[in-house]
Fold each of these.
Amino acid sequence: MLSLGGSLASWSLLFAAASAHHDNSAILPIAALGTVLAPSFGHWYSGELMSRGSWVRLLGLGIAVAAAIPAFQCSEDCRQSKLIEGAALAGVGLYIAGTVDDIVTAPGAARAANQRRHSIALVPMVRRDRAGLLLSARF
């Protein structure tokens, strides 16, 4: 739920900020950063810093940015090559695939982490009238 909820919130904020008619200079970058980080929230909960989806997302982002650089340097009568257009689409596709991968695999990672966190402990117990050992279990 962390990955899905964070991703939905980030994408919703990004679309709302991009379509609004007032100055969104602070909201837009925060929402964009959220789309990069939020899908990994479930994996971070499980103790995994970089998941497969986050690597795919970063690769897609790098390819899309590299493909966009020539577009910003192009004048009005300039046409982009099919290779650059294909690279931009591939980058966006990888970004989306990495997002979906993190959201889909996060529940399994969280379950595995919760299983590892289950423990049994033997702890000393001291009361006014007696002392002993207490068996504590967490499931």
Amino acid sequence: MKSDREYRSMEMRFAPVEGEEKSYIVEGYASTFEPYTLLTRDGIDYKEQIEPTAFDEADLSDVVFRVDHVGRVYARSSAGTVELWHDERGLGQRTDLSRTQAARELYADIEAGNYPKMSFAFTVAEGGETYDKATHTRIISRIAKVFDVSPVSFPANPSTELGVVTRDYFNGVIEAEKAERLEREQLELRRRKMMMKLKLEG
């Protein structure tokens, strides 16, 4: 199993307030199953897609809710204040920030727009990814564990601010594709030279 965590941005919205008492609930999808572009290099869009089966065996037993993936824990699934599920759309989360004063203050910050996006941290299971050369798409079929869901101060632009693990993965893919293109070009050049030589000798 890989030990390095990866991070992806997610949308966040507020659950409707029911009755007179404020709910302090935030919810959204940590992941959807539609392919998305992670970066563009040399005019090529490199994409990623998380398959609907990816969360079937994922460890969701103790997922925490904190800010920017570090520091204080405001809620967690093992305490019953973070709920996660996966359905035909993706991996959803619903977090109750009503239990402590600090959590309620964080909810107020989120409500004020100070944290417009969220991110989630995860690891890919060993052998849980493949690469489709035709579409330049990394396909994640099995996620090992989800660690946290976090409102973030500065949502990363996936085209420029990939995490180390993801950046290394795509750098390796891009270098391999460049090497393949160079080899094809050299073979084509040698073929043309051979054809020219045969014409001259003929």
